[in-house]
Amino acid sequence: MEVFCLDTFLFSLFNGALYGLLLFMLASGLTLIFSMMGVLNFAHASFYMLGAYLGFEIGRRTNFYIALAVVPFLVGGLGILIERYGLRHVHAYGHVGELMFTFGLSYVVQEVVVTIWGRSPLPATIPPSLNFTLFSVFGLEYSAYRVLMLFVSLGIFVGMFLLVARTRLGLILRAAISRPDTLAALGHNIQLIFALVFGGGTALAALAGILAGNILGTEPGMAIQLGSVIFVVIVVGGLGSLVGTCVAALGIGILQTLASSYDLSLSMLLASLGIRPEWPAFLVELTNTTLSRAAPLVPFLIMVALLSLRPNGLFGRGSS
Q1: What's the rounded mean pLDDT across residues 253-267?
Q2: DSSP for the chain?
Q3: Which of 1-10, 173-182, 240-249 has the lowest mean pLDDT?
Q4: Average pLDDT over every residue of 75-83
Q5: What is the dihedral of CA 116, 117, 118, 124, to 10 degrees?
Q6: pLDDT exceeds cutoff 50 at 1
Q7: Which CATH code fits 6-309?
Q8: What burial class does residue 45 get, using C-beta atoms within 10 Å of its C-beta: 0-12 exposed, 13-18 middle, 19+ buried?
Q9: Which residues contact 246 (CB under 8 A, 6 or more apart)?
Q10: Which among 69, 118, 128, 270 is least surrounded, fewest beta carbons within 10 Å?
Q11: 188, exposed or middle or buried, with CB in 10 Å at 0-12, 13-18, 19+?
Q12: For residue 4, what pLDDT is reported?
């Protein structure tokens, strides 16, 4: 039995890095919103789904590139309106009120999408200019579209890091986290800053949806599919840490993709070594479970294991 195949490993490693950067693109907006506003936005994955559907609709009426440029601004503008006329009024009731508001908002977005586009998956709309093999390694082909996703994700990380750490706007944003009253006394509009941050976070989610919809599928369950995973990413990375979000997203993406690529179980591994123990009945199913079947559990297993050692996450405030 061949346990390790270099071709499969390299292909899974690349796809895992791509999936991890996609998770980062999606989770970075949520991290931005939480670090600035202290709001865990349960509807964040719904904006990701909305971006995918709007990208499909605008893309088929115009082209993919126009959709890629326009949709983040549309969804970001919607996010600003939601913060201004909804979330801002709920903020006075604390975190429970915010969670309930965004939780209900996620269902509203879900039903709007189903009402307009139905429940059937939509076809991919990869443009012909990106639908070709850019390069191949060991006979494994990598499309130009996937490489575009890779560079967009890296660009977002570099851009957000430079914005927060190197610009005057970043200084204002960081001051709004710890000294909002002082910043307001200096003449800055804190409410406008929060609205723009919420809109920027939802725009990043929409951008991830446009790019990911053509690879992972555009269908009503896509928000639920990734919603829980992005919360795991920001918890593992450390709440409010952009670097931690990137590291956690890459790690989870690579490990989950590698696990899904191998039909290897504990029993098969031991058998390849000539060991065939007699398992108790209640352990037989567990030892026969393959890595590919257990792959969806990988993010949550990582979170449980890490938080038992570092309750604040990898780069969270107060972590040692």
Answers
A1: 82
A2: -----HHHHHHHHHHHHHHHHHHHHHHHHHHHHHHHH----TTHHHHHHHHHHHHHHHHHHS-HHHHHHHHHHHHHHHHHHHIIIIIHHHGGGHHHHHHHHHHHHHHHHHHHHHHHH-SSPBPP---TTT-SEEEEETTEEEEHHHHHHHHHHHHHHHHHHHHHHHSHHHHHHHHHHH-HHHHHHTT--HHHHHHHHHHHHHHHHHHHHHHHHHHH-BSTTHHHHHHHHHHHHHHHH-TT-HHHHHHHHHHHHHHHHHHHT----HHHHHHHTT------HHHHHHHH--HHHHGGGHHHHHHHHHHHH-TT-SS-TT--
A3: 1-10
A4: 94
A5: -170
A6: no
A7: 1.10.3470
A8: buried
A9: 24, 28, 157, 237
A10: 128
A11: middle
A12: 54
Q: Which residue has the tokens 């509807």?
A: 43
Q: What is the pTM of this model?
A: 0.86
pLDDT, position 157:
83
- Euclidean distance between the first and final Cα of the chain, in Å? 43
pLDDT score at 319: 45
Rounded CA-CA distance 102/108 in Å is 10
Q: Where are the domains of the chain?
A: 6-309
